[in-house]
Amino acid sequence: FDDLIEAFVRVLRIGRTSITYDFSAWRRPDDTLLVQSTQTLVLVDSAERRPTPIPEELRAPLRAFEGADLEE
Q: If you write DSSP's letter for every residue of 5-72 in order, what string do you get?
């Protein structure tokens, strides 16, 4: 196959303990969406084996990068 594919990953949502990523792949140059999916990951305290809040030092750069598109 000689198709040119462009793939994108972005942070869609950041919750108290989770981050949801949005993935998409497009065929170029006709801009056909080939696949789109989401994945939610939960930050877990490995000692307690419980969800733990995402620290502000991770939230701040995500906010700055994603801007108004980031759901919180």
A: EEEEEEEEEE-SSEEEEEEEEEEETTTEEEEEEEEEEE-EETTTTEE-PPPHHHHHHHHHHHGGG-B-
